[in-house]
Amino acid sequence: MRIYAVIAALLAASSASLAQLSQSPGAVLYEGARLITGDDGPALERAAFLVENGRFTRVGRQGEVAAPDGAARVDLTGKTVIPALIDAHSHIGYMKDLTSGPQNYTRENVLDHMRRFAYFGVAASQAMGSDFGELPFVLRDELAAGVHADAARFLTAGRGLAPLEEISPANMRHAAYVVTTVEGARANVRELARMKVSIVKTWVDDRGGTIKPLAPELSRAIIDEAHANGLRVAVHATGLADAKALMRAGIDIFGHMIEDVDDELVALFKARPNTAILLALNAPRRVVARPWLNPPHPLILETVSPQQIARLQERLASQSPEAAAEARRAWDRLARGIRILAAAGVKIGVGTDGGGQTGDQFVGWTIHTEMENMVVAGMTPAQVLVAATRTSAEILGLADLGTVIAGKSADFVVLDANPLDDITNTRRISRVFLRGQEVNRARLRAEWATSR
Ligand SMILES: [Zn+2]
User: Fold this and answer.
1) How many Å lie between the centroid of ligand 1 and the Cα of residue 79?
2) Closest CA to 90 of 363, 400, 394
3) CA–centroid distance, residue 25 to ligand 1 (Å)
4) Which CATH architecture is the domain 85-396 placed in?
5) For the domain 15-82+405-450, what is the CATH superfamily, name and number?
6) How much is the average pLDDT of 112-131?
7) What is the pLDDT of residue 176?
8) What does the alpha-carbon distance between residue 434 and residue 414 come to, in Å, rounded to a whole number?
9) Is cis: bond before 216, omega within 30 of 0?
């Protein structure tokens, strides 16, 4: 079924897209840049790397990397190269300018979002349980096969599994499986396994005491059935007690930072080194500070309509002093927790919750603010870059992405300034390459400028 979807997409693809599929056969040697490979080592000054057939084949110092006869050479002196970024928690297809909802969930809009990710230097994004129907699986396979130019890879968890009271058309859980029994939950997970998801999404949150949360025996059944089918479970759970219970049940991924951290939680993480946490921090942080919005950063102006920018400015300006004070307290707690988890060596990845229902978490852009948030919280720029590349790729099972190492897919970003000096330099994007092919950012920019 997957193969047929890919073949159908191939037949439908334009000849330009088919050319993309064959990838650049010619060897290209990129030389002179500072290279941040995504591993733990220091940046490589005056590096060189060879790209052949869409892959890194040699990586080393300028002058020491041999290139085959006839290889093209690209001088990147003065630039910094990082592995393409990975957004491990997003919601694709809902947002469209001022509107957000399942009515926007079309082939065109999902592809537009994946092009936005590519524009911002993101090689892959994982939609966390808000997808529905056949479309996400078809597009996942097309994007994995490189059918669409200038677009990031799309990973889908399909429909998430939620308790009845979580489900609302207003929160992107309208299509979630309603979980009421252990057997039902197990059957839902098996259906997702047949659709070849790698991650199952669920929610464990009483929403401030307003709803009946997923019962522990149901979350345990979801985790158990997922593991039996070779899948991992990502959970929306921010409460400390919920987090501990889920850790003991074998949860794989927390989709958000936990609102508070104590010694017992740290001990649980240390005993389970494969349990990962994604820091989707944009919501509380931007209430406290949003230097990128006033005035809007040029990348926002290039990709988001003026009315959407104005709406976010108004929403944030109209926060009550009480709400702002609460956001500040929440942020301070989160930042303290992040410092503790990072110091304890917990596996931390980057998720943005981008494309969320309010329509304010601009697709693609938010990974750059999220990385800034993580540094403000107390991680170093080097730690954050590893989190946003190698670790996030590892969390999503993307063995081909996340580092600039011989053998990996040639997905990288060329920056005009060094993000180790200032993490906001990840926004100073000069060029983006996915599978060794340069993303045509000027074309995308022109398209977005004329479509609004
Ligand atoms: Zn989410």
Assistant:
1) 34
2) 363
3) 39
4) Alpha-Beta Barrel (3.20)
5) Urease, subunit C, domain 1 (2.30.40.10)
6) 97
7) 95
8) 12
9) no
